[in-house]
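go over this record:
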Amino acid sequence: MDTFSIKFRAGSLDLDAIVTQHDHHRQFKVEMVTNEKEPILLNRSAEGAWDIVQRGPRNFSDQDFQELENAIERQLEDIYRVKNMLVLTDFSDSATNAARYATALAHELNTENIILYHSYVSIAVPPTAFAPASGGFTESADESLQLITELKNDLEERVPEQTNIEIRTDERTLLSAVNTLVEQQHIGLVITGITGKSSLERTLVGSNTISLAKDCLAPLLIIPPVAAFHPIKTVVFACDLKQVSASTPVRAIKTFVHALKARLLILNVDRDGAHFNPDTINEMTDLHQLWDDEQPEYHYIDHEDTVAGIMEFAGQQRAELVITVPKQYGFFEGIFHRSMAKRLAFHTHLPLLVFKEDI
């Protein structure tokens, strides 16, 4: 969100302001009225330290500026907390399991609204794929509405008392629909499974998951087919050491981990020092500057396969969740299209939460 409104107190006055953020929530323009000639300009470091660049036309005291900064902090916290959750379904067993996982997570995150979404877009299958030329699968609007209503009824017995469930179903393509809903409904988290009901659907849904993981505007939580919800007490944040300060969505990740009150483990996987270069020490310094206030555990390990290294480490630590900000091409292909044994080793139990890189 680039622009948002806030309320704050300056002396004896209650004021409204419009805040426009730049540079990944590091620079802020604050206007009491739109298009002020000399708005307030503030900088916020990745570590959370504020600096006044331009004080604006009003004679605000240092205490007033602190009130203003606190109001911005509260609004950013509200933006990143999972007030609204989008749950995707194709009515497969895996998708239903993911939806039930979402209702359990809603208790942990104090989620207020869950939107269930299904796309019944008709898919034409070429004769060289998994079905004859006349094959494919279709679904009517009425059938989709019936199925998603049945799912809603099942989930309403599981959600927190304060959580409302809405249903949406249409024939838009999945990624387009998801990103539109994310923007319109201020979605803080999208949740999906990874398999469908048939071999064809499993192929398509797997492709959809990869597409969502790369281009979804909100954080995406991918639930393995038979994952059972357990309170999230340990989180592994798997990161590389490339442009750490510029590319890591620190505020979003911290807000999520804070909501869970979870223990944070920060993991970097290298291959026999293959990625160690003169910039690595500086990147490690930046990593610590970003995260030391959270008092995480830092782990640096070697493994010939980055994805396998993450899996194994998370298993050894008995983590309930892995967070990553994938940058390199092929990361998700490495998870979803590797050998069956390695794929199942990951997806039988451990959810993966994907945040978009700050760019």
In short: The radius of gyration is 22 Å. The chain has a mean pLDDT of 83. Residues 128 and 135 are 11 Å apart (CA to CA).
